[in-house]
Amino acid sequence: MVKVFEILEHTADIGFRAWGDAPAELFANAALALQSIAVEATVVNERFIYPIAAAGGDYETLLVNWLNELLYYLDGERVVMSRFQIDQISPERVSGKGWGEQRDPARHAPKLVVKGVTYHQLAIKEEEGRWSAQVFLDV
Amino acid sequence: MVELETNDGLRHRIPRQRVPGMRADVVVYATEALLGQIRKDLSLQQAMNVAALPGIVGPSLAMPDIHQGYGFPIGGVAATDWEEGVVSPGGVGFDINCGVKFVSSNLHSDEVRPRLRELVNQVFRDVPCGAGGQGRLELSDRELREVLAKGARWVVEQGYGDERDYECAEEGGRLEDADPDQVSSRAKERGRPQLGTLGSGNHFLEIQVVEQIHHPEAARAMNIQTGQVVVLLHCGSRGLGHQVCTDFLAEMGAAMKRYDISIPDRQLACVPIQSPEGQAYLAAMRAAANFAWANRQAILHFLRDSFRRVFGAQTRLTTIYDVCHNIAKKERHEVEGRKRDVLVHRKGATRAFPPGHREVPAIYRHVGQPVLIPGSMGTASWILVGSDGAMQETFGSVCHGAGRLLSRTAARKGRNAKQVEAALEAQGIIVRSETRDGILEEIPEAYKDVDEVIEVVHRAGLARKVARLRPMGVIKG
Asked: Which residues of B are catalytic?
């Protein structure tokens, strides 16, 4: 299987690098990466569809805001999701959805409390049609 | 490599002239050995970025436990002019009013040692912790607003504690001018189920024994002596504070353009203190700080239950003090011979007011404000008191902990949790954690030597050693 994200190192904290063939795929994979750090999500029933949307002025800001929306679902609404789909994306706005269910402590063991998504060394690049994003999280 | 001017082996300076954009010098407190570790990450660069904040007053300060953070280094202190300066949520961090509560027991380690495992297990049952930790307190909207306005006092008013619990706390366990309306509904929802929970990461609750007394007069004021069992509790404002930081980082990122502020790192987003956004952030931050004090108070209540269950109804836990080490506060300091109102950002730094300061509770005023420095899991922690040097040099601030050295993955590498637990038990330390990774990631080797960090602030005259504490039981978030 093609790797869609990897976890990165930082003395006190943790981050990830995600890839995609287009911004839409990149944002979906970044969401998977964030969730994999926060919670065990190998068994998720797709019981509900959760809409996720964010705004920003550029792709970096948009990604931070998008991930913060997901973080609120994870930590505020206690939801876990198995996959994500982006319906519309521009540097100003992203809208999409995730399939998942309410977190069940027995199946979705918590991993790390992600306090927030940071701008620290945040970078989104496109090279030969391949998009990548580097994001660090405060945990 | 960043060049530092060193005069006494403890204070190292990067002059503002060195780099365009720096409005202030950087001063680092460290030994050469600690400096070697500090140079390995971006913390000095981050301290230099902080020196570029508009309206910074005095130097950008780096404590000996400094390590790379987000925007601000962790272990960083910066004061900005109250009228002309900026406020930066990055100078407080996501965990608003992460702090430490220190309580003494009326038990000797000889009584506790034979029943230590039972006590640790009881505390582990009674204090919700870990990433999934949900609280035992259900708060209505009205109650949550009261928590945000009143802090630890609200918890005590419900019958969970006594007046001393908040009187012996920085700011009396409550910041004035907190505005619950500035806290978003998301922040409230994220925090609502989490009052009275420890959280995860480096948050912990440690049952300790007083090992050495270095300042008998201050120890007498705190009523602690060698052999006595004490508890150090380290946690913050949970999801509520995290969301407040997230909300305002987004808002300030957009607002900065309006105020024509440019900064070297977006995580340092800031706005004028006197702007509507600046005032709104401070009002929300204070409310989140109050939530953190209420959180530590609620945990203390559970802890008292645990101790009584194991050692009987006559067991007492008495609050010695409670400090915050992620906060921004308006304070009056003398700068270049003139008293000025400044906003002191302490990001991973502890207030350390000296003897005689009116903010220090009367029972400690002759010795100085208690300063509580947790070490890493399984190593020593320290109690200090603030000194005059801190008022003269660091806006009344010192370090906050040992400071991380290894990443989480590096800490896990080549170790397993059973071996780590066994090695700690061989030293008489019992550890309970929600996850095995939690134990591995917080191993003592992942942190700097806390004794050396303390030696720096003691020798530099910022704070004075009072007592060294040794862990007995650890509950890891």
From this structure: 400
